[in-house]
Amino acid sequence: MVKQRLHFILLILPFILTGQINLNNAFPEQQTIPFYKSSNYLNEATSNQYSVNEDCSQEFSAGYHEAIWIGYNWMVANDITVDSNTQMTVQKLEFEVITIEGLPTTFNIDFYYDNSGSGPASQLGESLTDITPVSITPNGTWGQAGYAIYKVVLELPNAPVLQAASTVNKKYWIGISAAPTTEGSFYIYLASSLYEQNSVSNPTWISDSSVWIQYTNAGSKAEGIIKFSGECEPLQGCTDAPNGQFPSEVFIPDCNGFSQSITPENSALTGQYSEVQVTNGKKYIFSSSEPTDFITIASEDGTTLAVGYGFVSWTANFEGKIKFYTHLDNACTSSENEYRERRVQCGIPDCDHQKVISHNFQNGSILGGIMAQDLAFDIPVTETGFHLFGIELNLIQNSINGDNITFNVNLFNEINGVPGSSLASPAVSIYEKELLGTVFFNSTNFDIYRYVLKFENSVELNADAWAQIGIAGGIGEIYWESNPNTILGSGIALRNLGTGFNWAINPASDLVYSLICEETLDVKNNDLFAFSYYPNPVNDKLIITSEKQINTIDVYTLSGQSVLNNLKLINGELNLQTLASGIYLCRVELEGRQIETFKILKK
């Protein structure tokens, strides 16, 4: 369950003043290290830092120290890495706390997925609440007021299993929060060391029940002094199949870039598998229409190849068949009367097929609104890449001042299957706006508009990316049309209050859109089609070369309206001076009735 976080609270860490603490740890000499507390006088204390090397454990030792506030609603999260082809069950946490008042008798623990190395993303499993430590050991005092230092040991009997696919290590986050035992005056800090001492990990992130932010002090990042230990074993999936194989035949995907249904809609069960033919070196995305399903990809002999929830990305390292299992959870639970759909996706569509068609305006995802929700779709990119000139989308809107809506577009590099670092934020304008009709929803009539957004300057894409479109100026409910039956790429990426404004994936649906783009032509392309054109964008004259005779050239708007007919080349040039600025579709008929179509941007 994803924890709901209210966005209107964002606090600065309290009680940051100066002080000193001496820690006697695993290092050969005693160190004097700065500590920050609500006091103006010099404080000193002595503490012991554990230093144990065990199998299936990760420990961040002390260096120069600070402390991170985890009182009241604050949570501190540290990252943990699971080796490839491994699953880890965290059974014990050990850490040190410094308290001003009261004794911490219970703690809450949450597990999170990683947000591309930028802190926690969506929550994994249920919160582990009101955990009583197996031991709280006094470990010295701090300062003239004698604030107590404790070493806390927690055992976690019901922690979720952390799993890494067979090819890469995987990072997770473990969040710690404390429950007060005295009303109104309970303060607790997690002892930490500077991040430079533990540079193999990511620095600590904190949350005040609002959003996650990276903890820093005076420009330095910190890592909690904490030890994770548990049980590690080879990656285990669920290959139990009480409901057998379905369908009985092997499924051979088209690998055209679109998600294909292996099973007829709502006919597959959990505790069941489908056989899929795979090609060596090709990337596959296996998904379920139920985003909480536990998915296992296994070889014919039952060896687990990859696991995950909702969807699994896996690159085949052999030619042959795999078994695609779905279960209700990683305990291999299944049902005989809960139906879903198993899907597979592979390959990359060319530029002309980078679109998700309308679903007759039956579905939509809220854009902005009270949830402040961002939406994005992923763009699979071929090896040759392409130029992106604009995007077409459908909005279902019940808005005041709808004519005043403006758009912004942000493109992101893809990192670990979600939007990552910023790629580009092109300036956009509304090139076309068309009223398609109305739909009745929530006792209200909504207008349906098709928008064509034109980029001021094209963006070159050479690797998979994500496109996020935001709006401003409209007041009221606005939905971006989506389609659960046509999925291109990974599905919908969204971030909102409920995800802590970290990107999460809904693999069971995709946003309706169409790219206005052009493949990047190279020598191979020209040789293949014996046809080329340039420049694009174009000012007045477009040069077209073809080994075949050109019969006719026609130019259309993107909505299909003819603007220029039966044009002829003059010395290999097409005169477009009379065209207004915009994006157009050119249709060229060659000898033998061969047709070439392409988009151009007229400056």
Written description of the protein model:
This protein has 603 residues and is mainly β. Helices cover 1% and strands 53% of the residues. The strands form nine sheets. Strands 3, 4, 6, 9, 10, 11, 13, 16, 17 and 18 form a ten-stranded antiparallel sheet that branches. Strands 27, 28, 30, 33, 34, 36, 39 and 40 form an eight-stranded antiparallel sheet that branches. The protein starts with 19 loop residues before the first strand and ends with a strand.
Quick recap of the structure?
InterPro entries: Secre_tail. With 603 residues, the protein is mainly beta. The chain has four domains: 49-234, Jelly Rolls; 258-346, Jelly Rolls (Sandwich), CATH 2.60.120; 351-516, no CATH class; 531-602, Immunoglobulin-like.
